[in-house]
Amino acid sequence: MKITFILPSVGRKDGQKKYIKTWCMEPLAIAQLAALTPPDIQTEFFDDRLEKINYDTTTDLVAINIEAYTAKRAYEIAEQYKKRGKQIVMGGFHATLMPEEVREHADAVVVGEAEGVWLEVINDYQSNQLKKIYQSKTVPSLEGILPDRSIYQNKKFLKLGLMETGRGCNYN
Asked: Tell me: the pLDDT tens digits for 82-104?
């Protein structure tokens, strides 16, 4: 099995060659999911800000991280993979805030933090039982999860290593 991770760009104007350099930081969420992906599953990653997406790559499942400002582009990317018969799972801020809209473009939507349900998504895909919505019932622990930065190999990100020490606010 192979999973292709995608980080959509905001979009490019015709003729624009390069993305705004200061925005090209490592997408930590992709590395987190890569770390949680079982080692017997092959992974690849396309960062739409830095490179062209290979829609004809041999893959089984396409995982797209979607934010409000990348939604239009994410839907375009999903459509290209769907034309090729691939199944799409989308997660991220926009998927959490607008799951029904995102559901129109994806086979499965991850609402909230993916760490608690990622293995379930993979297992369900493998058994041909992908659910429409995945949502962790508890806040998943990030303890012991080290991002798999090998997913960034040959990418030209800013020379700035991101790390995460916590998420959200514990208070109302």
From this structure: 999 999 999 999 999 999 999 99
